[in-house]
Amino acid sequence: QVQFAESGGFLVQPGGSLRLSCVVSGISVSINDMGWYRQAPGKQRDLVASFTLWGRTNYTDSVKGRFTISRDNAKNTLFLQMTSLKPEDTAVYYCNAAPAHRSWGQGTQVTVSA
């Protein structure tokens, strides 16, 4: 059974930083393309960062230079380091394979507000 357990979301002021974690079970982050997605209120869920099994990273334009995706193969965990956060980054963040597996975790809420 594939499961994703996201954590690390919080309320942070604009310009702040957060590090999200996602413990993955049922699939291996080392041999699958993996990604972080986010869904803002009233909007669709979008892929914002991805990591190929070959180590190549890709980011949507709005987060380039601010977000960094990484993984710990031994712990089967995916991370998203977020810096220079903006109010428009407010969303529920999810990790999943890329393309996404049909199962989703609960996500973790990131709120950027003064």
What oligomerization state is this entry in?
A: single chain
Q: What order do the SSEs take from the amino end to the carboxyl end, as H and E?
A: EEEEEEEEEE
What integer value in Å does the Rg equal?
Answer: 13 Å
Proportion of beta-strand residues: over 45%
Largest sheet: 6 strands, mixed
User: Helix amount, in percent?
Assistant: under 10%
Q: Which strand order do you get reading across the main beta sheet?
A: 2-10-9-4-5-6
Overall strand count: 10
Detail the poorly predicted runs: none
Our count of helices gives 0
Distance between the first and last residues' Cα = 40 Å
Question: Roughly what is the average pLDDT, rounded to an integer?
Answer: 96
Q: What structural class do you assign from the helix and strand content? A: mainly beta
Which term fits the overall shape?
A: globular
How would you characterize this protein structure?
The protein is globular, with a radius of gyration of 13 Å. It has strands spanning 3-7, 11-12, 18-25, 34-39, 46-51, 57-59, 67-72, 77-82, 91-97, 108-112. The model has no long low-confidence stretch (mean pLDDT 96). By secondary structure, the protein is mainly beta. 0% of the residues lie in helices and 47% in strands. It contains no helices and ten strands. The strands form two sheets. The protein has a six-stranded mixed sheet with strand order 2-10-9-4-5-6, with no helix packed on it.
